[in-house]
Amino acid sequence: KQEVTQIPAALSVPEGENLVLNCSFTDSAIYNLQWFRQDPGKGLTSLLLIQSSQREQTSGRLNASLDKSSGRSTLYIAASQPGDSATYLCAVGGFIRSGNTGKLIFGQGTTLQVKP
Amino acid sequence: GAGVSQSPSNKVTEKGKDVELRCDPISGHTALYWYRQSLGQGLEFLIYFQGNSAPDKSGLPSDRFSAERTGGSVSTLTIQRTQQEDSAVYLCASSRDRGTEAFFGQGTRLTVV
Predict the structure, then answer these.
(1) Which of A107, A111, B13, B66 is at 20 to 30 A from A67, Cα to Cα?
(2) Smallest Cβ distance to B31: which of A32, A102, A107?
(3) Using an 8 Å Cβ cutoff, are A113 and A53 in contact?
(4) DSSP readout, A21-70?
């Protein structure tokens, strides 16, 4: 059974710091990994999608890496801003061993607070 | 449409009543997902539709829960004889195909009183 873990559960940093959020998963036979952001009371916003054949993706100040063999992904946020405060969720998608389903399995998230 | 649309945005129902939650995915997306998020909790997978394949229902918590997807587009999640523990935000997502980027709706907040 695929399990996804995110560390730390919560993080508070001063504005301007670079930071790294961690995601680990137990079954490496995945199609992709996706990072989302969730603001309080809102739905999820897709940030980055990494296909299984890729090692990283970048969007603006965000960089996500994927190491399938070790079951790890990191989300790097450069020069953090108060507007980055939110919960960040990683989800692994599709399980090759099962041969069919593309469902996403989520971690519990990291709640980030960036203080001005 | 421009994004995934869910209705209603909020639903308050009495214990024991049936409810229907609707999801309109992005046009052309073949994959559709339902998740549940209880207060302060992570996302719990409920059901996944992919094209004309049989849906993956492995996350449905009980036989009170069912979902259908008509014409490969709109989906309805039905909860029969609602219980207080069903109170949560129900989130729907769609993606162009399996293994592609998933986009979420804003969710339906269900409160069972």
Answers:
(1) A111
(2) A102
(3) no
(4) EEEEES---EEEEEEEEE-TTS-EEEEEEEETT-SEEEETTEEEEEETTT
Token pair belonging to A98: 């099962």
- All residues of chain A having their beta carbon less than 8 Å from the beta carbon of residue B107 are 43
Q: What are the 10-residue block averages of pLDDT along chain B, 113 residues in total?
A: 90 98 95 91 90 89 95 93 97 89 95 97
Q: How far apart are CA B21 and CA B44, in angstroms?
A: 16
Distance CA A10, CA B56 (A): 32
Residue-wise pLDDT for A28-87, tens only, equals 888 899 999 999 888 899 999 999 899 999 999 999 999 999 999 999 999 999 999 999
